[in-house]
Amino acid sequence: MDTLNTLLMGFISIVLINNLVFTKFLGICPYLGVSGRIDMAFGMGMAVTFVVTLSGTLTWLIDHLILMTIPGLEVTRYVCFILVIAGAVQLVEMYLRKFFPVLYDSFGIFLPLITTNCAILGLCPFINLWEVGNLLEAVVLSFGAGTGFTMAICIMAGIRENLNLADVPKSLRGAPITLITAGLLTLAFMGFAGMIK
Amino acid sequence: MANERSNSSAIGQTLIAGLWRENPVFRLLLGMCPTLAVTAAVKPALTMGLCVIFVLLCSNIVVSLMRNLLKPHLRILMFTLTISTFVTIADLFLKAFQPRMSETLGPYVPLIIVNCIIICRAEACASKNGLFISIIDAIGMGIGFTATLCVLAGIRELLSTGAVFEIQILPLGENGGWFTPWAAMSMPVGAFITLGLLLGLVNIISRKKT
Question: Which residues contact A128 (CB under 8 A, 6 or more apart)?
Fold first, then answer.
């Protein structure tokens, strides 16, 4: 019961309170770039959730089972992380192309783009920083991070679809108004701060 | 650009391109995460900028030297491996000589690996051009990025604490002055909105120029 509680709290905290996009500025590039339409945003969110869960778990395992047990090897941490992520993305891409061609087509360009998504590489040092102690917690946190990202990018896409109808000053059209909208959205999510210690 | 290598005006243009015409943050919208995350004050912004210049310079040199050996489908992997090696160096250097700054920047130093600017320059410039042009390009882009970070950080630090580079400029209310700090400016909200308005300003200026 106690572990379940911790896991649930961790999940809610990373989805709402420590949302990677709103408070840590991770994954801003796709957040601004592919949030034009809600279906594309959802596709991106799903792809990120999948890869982040996989790579978050794998990097935790590698970090704790290999890098931390051999002294001096911790230096290579970032090189290992990026290799794992690039490998995971490549694997997912190959697997999807072979077995789920429809899904693969709908993901399209998003899959290779994920390699350079900061949300994924960013989560690995954060998991390290928060001193996540066991594997289950790392899995739940990684999944929560992906869910939080999906939620953020979908909200943003919904707003931007309506923003197309609005009369925005000429010089603010495009990226500037998106950033200002993101700012206001962040302000709203600040209301969750301090909900869980 | 490769065949104009000896042409000094081309070199000057490459250098200046990063500052304004192809400014990585304002024009290409690259490297947004560090831009937003470390600009609460000028000092971390400057440190981040210097780290990026170092990594960009080294990775451009290495990529440019090995550009003829690269296999197309393994290109990106080689880029990221090169970059992550130099980022590790920068990270360890900061940890050793600037431990407090390293703590402030936290995970954003390793995040330089996925900073799109560096991969973009490796792909768009260093893998096609010679060593010399790649170095010039890295310096131009790096300075452009750093300058942008510092402008953004300067505005945010001034409005959130009334100070720039930790030197008090606006007299604070609690010390008998008139300035009330905007706490929101040091939070994520301030980052997004300041950058949005700055981009708008850049749009206005560049439209007037043409």
Answer: A63
Alpha-carbon distance A143 to A89, whole Å? Answer: 16
Provide the residue ranges of all domains of chain B, joining segments of one domain with +.
7-209
Q: Is the full-model pTM beyond 0.90?
A: no
- Tokens 């709402």 — which residue? A16
A121-146 confidence digits (pLDDT tens): 778 777 777 777 788 888 888 999 99
Summarised one tens digit per residue, pLDDT across range B190-205 is 888 998 898 888 888 8
How much of chain A exceeds pLDDT 70, in percent?
93
**By the 8 A CB rule, do B38 and B45 touch?**
yes
pLDDT in tens, B63-111: 999 888 887 777 777 888 888 899 999 999 999 998 888 888 888 888 8
DSSP 8-state code for residue B106: G
Nearest CA distance, B186 vs chain A (angstrom)? 12
Question: What is the C-alpha separation between B210 and B206, in angstroms, rounded?
Answer: 7
Main-chain phi, psi angles of A39, to 5 degrees: -70, -35
Question: Does residue A23 sit at the B interface (CB-CB below 8 Å)?
Answer: yes
Question: Tokens at residue B55, please?
Answer: 């990594």
Check residues A147 and A116 and name the one with the higher pLDDT: A147
Classified as helix, coil or strand, B35 is helix
In a mutational test of the A interface, the residue from B25, B26, B33 whose CB has the highest number of chain A CBs within 10 Å is B33
Residue of B nearest to A27 (CA): B33
A1 min Cα distance to partner chain B (Å): 32
* Gap between the Cα atoms of B185 and B115, Å rounded: 24
Contact B30, B149 (CB under 8 A): no
A6 touches chain B (CB under 8 A): no
Query: How many Cβ atoms are within 10 Å of B163's Cβ, its own excluded?
Result: 16
